[in-house]
User: Which sequence fits this backbone?
């Protein structure tokens, strides 16, 4: 019997924990702690503990599939790639779209972006950051000139005050939660705001149970109270920021006084006053947030308000401070870094920047150039065109994306995807979206290939191959290179291994320029920016200046807007959604892990006991949940942890798909409003309207 251990990085959330995969006779049979990582120091959450269980699932894709009529037939790689190359060559560049994946490596995403812009010449390249943190990218870029998490994960343990909202951190990012415990052991205070009394609320020194959708109202009220009491950092404001008077004018309005705002938020005004005092008087305060903040039609406003609060109190640019957006997926930061965005090239240069366009074209060396320097369509716009059947988008290449689960307004997405003339899906499982594909290409999972990932704190780390892919499955980067070669661009895709791709990434992205394959292979990895060889990396951003042209952070005052989908007599309850500790996003991996699925294997709705009593609903009853745009059936869970008038559903279960609830989005970043919806709840009688 052969036995080995391979050190790699977890494939789930953006924390980027390191672990060892235990391999026996060519199969991954378990995990073991890896103590040298500063991110998790040998601890892993339940998802990480059982992450090996989906690797050898019997339903892994093993051979390419080609559709003939309604039936898929197995094919060899030559036949599949020749068909894809022929079909893609028949479309004009702007008729094709490529969707990459935050679940694959930096190298895979970089080659997907290069394939889109260089081989297909299309502007339309995007990935799922549009659906989780595009509001962060837009809001922080406007405020700071950069869009990433400002501090490191270990840095959170150095804070004196931690304000967490829009994130159930102890379930969604448990090893970040460990740093909160470390800070509290040192005497730090934890303030937590959420409609639910979650595992994170249990740890809080101050819990604010407010209505989802009133985030700006709450944040403006806190800032107004800080200013009225003279707790703002006047020196930081004077030396490091601009537009303060405009902020002051907005947050000191009467509507943001704690007594008024508290009534609208559903919060005791004294809690707002205490929050303001703790944040305003702390030496080092950090703020943590996630998709509860961003997945609203006011997501950008929410992020701007968070940036305003931290600049107001001078909590930027130092250890234990910062604006820390916790990314939901293992490589959503890296996918953005390498340019899988329709408006930005690798390193966040604008696609409309003529100089950046020429530099990239020169570095890549495509004889016929690359796509034109114009913004492409984002995911939401792509599916709007498909639904309307405008014939602008005719072909699509999906790499690790499953929009029939993850997209909002699922009915429209399903209608739209049927209007494609040609669809290629590249994945590790036969997903719901594969059912509509013309060609399905089998990909290697994270444990079956080499590469790098960039976690939520900008830390670039290695993933390492532990076992071979099943059957004829191949790494995404290899598939892309083979396809590019068939389409006449082999010279531009000469890579023999992941290391070659990473080396090219470091020449293209200024923030990665000082990194090497060996450097990111160390236990601590490297936090970008790492601009030159020998540079140690940058755990804390904005120490002396922001990334804006004048080096100053910009206060961006915003007034609160009500959510677009408010309760009324017909739809009297508010619904919000989120993750639970046992599962991750669409569940395609975690629901194939026996130990995780044994814990929770179906969707449910949480409702307050007083609300349930009025509806004569008990825990375990089947209920009908109706939105203004559809509905679903699930079991009820009657819990005191949810705020009265609010309800909650996890979004991991396609058979209870909560994404059907919304068609509203943020006007600036196109973020869909997953977190706020009005619903009607009643006992299930056998019919779903």
Assistant:
């Amino acid at each position: 019997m052969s036995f080995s251990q391979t050190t790699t990085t977890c494939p789930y959330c953006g924390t980027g924990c390191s672990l060892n995969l235990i391999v026996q006779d060519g199969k991954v049979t378990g995990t073991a702690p890896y103590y040298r990582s500063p991110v998790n120091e040998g601890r892993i959450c339940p998802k990480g503990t059982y992450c090996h269980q989906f690797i050898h699932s019997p339903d892994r894709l093993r051979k390419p599939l080609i559709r003939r009529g309604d039936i898929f037939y197995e094919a060899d790689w030559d036949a599949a790639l020749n068909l894809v190359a022929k079909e893609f060559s028949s479309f004009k560049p702007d008729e094709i779209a490529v969707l990459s994946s935050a679940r694959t490596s930096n190298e895979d995403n970089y080659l997907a972006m290069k394939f889109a812009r260089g081989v297909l010449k299309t502007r339309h390249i995007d990935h799922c950051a549009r659906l989780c943190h595009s509001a962060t990218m837009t809001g922080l870029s406007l405020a700071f000139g950069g869009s990433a998490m400002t501090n490191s994960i270990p840095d959170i343990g150095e804070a004196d005050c931690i304000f967490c909202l829009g994130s159930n951190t102890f379930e969604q990012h448990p090893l970040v939660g460990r740093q909160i415990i470390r800070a509290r052991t040192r005497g730090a205070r934890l303030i937590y705001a959420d409609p639910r009394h979650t595992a994170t609320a249990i740890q809080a020194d101050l819990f604010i149970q407010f209505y989802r959708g009133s985030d700006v109202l709450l944040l403006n009220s806190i800032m107004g109270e800080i200013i009225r009491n003279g707790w703002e950092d006047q020196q930081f404001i004077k030396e490091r920021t601009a537009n303060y008077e405009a902020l002051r004018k907005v947050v000191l309005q009467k509507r943001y006084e704690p007594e008024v705002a508290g009534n609208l938020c559903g919060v005791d005004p004294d809690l707002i006053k205490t929050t303001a005092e703790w944040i305003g008087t702390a030496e080092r305060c950090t703020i943590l947030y996630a998709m509860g903040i961003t997945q609203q039609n006011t997501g950008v406003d929410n992020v701007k308000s968070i940036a305003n609060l931290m600049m107001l109190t001078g909590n930027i640019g130092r250890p234990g401070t910062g604006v820390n957006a916790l990314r939901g997926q293992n490589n959503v930061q890296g996918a953005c870094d390498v340019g899988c965005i329709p408006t930005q090239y690798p390193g966040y240069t604008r696609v409309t920047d003529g100089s950046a366009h020429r530099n990239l074209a020169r570095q890549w060396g495509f004889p016929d150039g690359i796509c034109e320097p114009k913004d492409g369509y984002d995911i939401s716009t792509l599916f709007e065109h498909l639904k309307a059947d405008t014939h602008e988008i005719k072909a699509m290449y999906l790499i690790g994306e499953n929009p029939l689960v993850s997209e909002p307004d699922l009915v429209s997405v399903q209608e739209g995807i049927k209007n494609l003339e040609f669809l290629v899906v590249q994945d590790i499982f036969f997903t719901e979206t594969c059912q509509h594909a013309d060609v399905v290409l089998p990909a290697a999972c994270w444990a079956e290939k080499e590469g790098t990932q960039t976690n939520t704190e900008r830390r670039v780390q290695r993933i390492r191959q532990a076992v071979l892919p099943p059957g004829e499955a191949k790494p995404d980067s290899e598939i892309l290179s083979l396809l590019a070669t068939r389409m006449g661009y082999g010279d531009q895709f000469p890579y023999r291994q992941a290391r070659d791709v990473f080396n090219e990434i470091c020449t293209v992205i200024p923030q990665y320029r000082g990194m090497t394959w060996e450097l990111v292979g160390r236990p601590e990895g490297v936090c970008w920016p790492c601009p030159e060889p020998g540079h140690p990396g940058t755990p804390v951003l904005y120490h002396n200046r922001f990334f804006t042209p004048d080096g100053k952070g910009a206060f961006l005052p915003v007034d609160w807007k009500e959510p677009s989908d408010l309760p009324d007599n017909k739809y009297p309850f508010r619904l919000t959604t989120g993750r639970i500790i046992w599962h991750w996003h669409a569940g395609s991996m975690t629901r194939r892990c026996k130990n995780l699925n044994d814990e929770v294997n179906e969707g449910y709705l949480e409702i307050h006991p007083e609300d349930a009593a009025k509806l004569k609903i008990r825990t375990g009853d089947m209920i009908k949940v109706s939105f203004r745009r559809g509905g679903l059936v699930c079991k009820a869970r009657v819990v005191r942890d949810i705020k009265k008038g609010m309800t909650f559903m996890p979004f991991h279960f396609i058979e209870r798909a909560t994404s059907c609830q919304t068609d509203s989005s943020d006007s600036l970043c196109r973020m869909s409003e997953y977190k706020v919806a009005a619903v009607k709840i009643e006992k299930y009688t056998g019919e779903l309207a």
In short: The chain has four domains: 3-54, 65-129+335-525, 134-325, 573-683. The first helix runs from residue 46 to 49. The chain has a mean pLDDT of 92.
